[in-house]
Structures are given as structure tokens and as C-alpha cells.
Amino acid sequence: MTEEMRASIPETVLLGFERLIVQKGLVVSRLKADKAENFSEQKKMALERVEFLEYNSKEEVTTQGRADSAVLYTETENVEIFGNILFYSKEEETSIEAETLFWNKVEETLSANTDELVKVIQDDGSYMQGWGFQSDFKLKKIEFTKGASGLYIVEDDEESDE
Predict the structure, then answer these.
(1) What pLDDT, on a 0 to 100 scale, did the predictor assign at position 136?
(2) Which of 42, 65, 118, 130 could disulfide-link 144, Cβ–Cβ 3.0 to 4.6 Å?
């Protein structure tokens, strides 16, 4: 068997995969996949039909997401995410739709290639979409480096004359 063939064969295949991250006795995040293939030499895990949940200190879901597939780099915890991506933050009342995204664990950034369209939609109907998406979760900052468009909805405060 050639080295190239060996690298393409996972050491472990798990069906109904679930990974919990627990801190101080509380579940802080949950990663589920219909199928997980572990490639330990390459320090990565290939996931199919992925679901992600993040919890607050009351163990209530604050962020949820899904994608067709993902590659989790086990040494860095960075993740490449692919296909029909939808993330929703209850706290920010905002969702993100894309076809390809990259999560950098250390920097807490989510980004896309400059040729990938990403759409950010707020619950009130406001949205922004563009290319070159970069998001810094520490700073709560979103940026499009290669053009963007959108719609911002401003609600009128109705005052009663009673």
C-alpha cells in the first residue's frame, strides 16, 4: 500500500459521533456528526452532516449551527466547514449563511475566502452580504474585505398621543 493510499484511509470511523466539552462540570459545547473519520497521523477528523451547539452557564443553547461537512484539526481545534452552513446566535439575534468557513480557535475568528459569498442576517430582517468575510468574536466585529451590500431596518418608535 502506498503512503498516499494509507493517508486516505481513516484509522477509525464512528457513526453517530458526539463530542462534549465540559468546563467546571458544565457542558459548554457539543459537536455532533452522523459520521466521523479519524486520521491521527494527519491530526484531523473528517465529519459529515455536522451540528454544533454552544451553551451558557445555565446550560441553555446560545449558539447553534449546522453544515454538510467539516474538518476538525485535532491539534489546534481549528475547523474548516463546508456546505449549507447556517449558524445562529441567540444572544446576537443573528445568523450566518455560507458555503465555506474557517474557524480559528486561538484567535476566535471565523472567516471565508474572498471568492465566497457570506450572508449575515439579523432577526429584524436587516442583513449584510459580501465577500472576504472576517469575524472576530472577541471584539464582536464583522468585516467584508472585498465588497458588501445589505439592508438595515430601523424601527420607528411610535409614541401615543393619549
Answers:
(1) 87
(2) 130
